[in-house]
């Protein structure tokens, strides 16, 4: 009997808190400032999670500016983690510039991320220039990379947001450039290059004189060929704008990390970051031609 009474008293203490927690989340979603104040006055935790997210996250996601401001004034943690990342991620995803500024002005981390994708990646990919400016001015890393090496400028160029790409280039983007590789090609191992290509590139590229292309263009005769020149292949604006022919050094730049060195290209792979592997593959590609070009 005593144990049952203790449990009853325990539940009677917890139930009101749980109800208040649910009430503040519902009020935040609706933007009901009066209900938020009532829930806080009744003891609701401003940073409580409903199992997925905080009241502030829901207010931001629904675009409830007044509610978000009120929650912050009452101590809401602008960087609180949720199932979908901190509140800034919701603001950027929806392109809510006033909420982005509110969060940043109150200490939100401009480099907030979810699964290695930062708020700036999302803003750049969506083409929201004002969002990008707000994040960069607050200290967002313009060279941030996702786990598969995508950068904000790559996403901006890929999706045709030239104004965003130009802004990022003017505000610190660094396009890496590998060391020259021509001197290594004479001693490169063509057989290792063939094996590397077969294991890592052949699923997307043919390297035979005849036959339709796979996902990517046929690389037969690629060394010395004009860039973006094959018929019936859709090329990115970035690659078309590069111009010229595929020299040894241009292949070196491109293959070292396509999305990093030439952002906006359709080849969304990490490339061949190892210099020795890259030299071997380029040496192999040289041989895949009716008239292999001279070595440097």
From TrEMBL:
- Quick one: signal sequence residues? 1-21
UniProt domain Cytochrome c: residue ranges: 188-289
The record's ANK repeats, renumbered to this chain, cover 23-51, 51-83, 83-115, 115-147, 148-173
Q: Which organism is it from?
A: Ferirhizobium litorale
User: InterPro entries, per this entry?
Assistant: Ankyrin_rpt (IPR002110), Ankyrin_rpt-contain_sf (IPR036770), Cyt_c-like_dom (IPR009056), Cyt_c-like_dom_sf (IPR036909), Cyt_c_1A/1B (IPR002327)
Please give one Gene Ontology molecular function term for this protein: electron transfer activity
Report the PANTHER family cross-referenced here. Answer: ANKYRIN REPEAT DOMAIN-CONTAINING PROTEIN 39, ANKYRIN REPEAT DOMAIN-CONTAINING PROTEIN 39-RELATED
Supply the name of the protein: Ankyrin repeat domain-containing protein
In terms of Pfam families, this protein maps to: Ank_2 (PF12796), Ank_4 (PF13637), Cytochrom_C (PF00034)
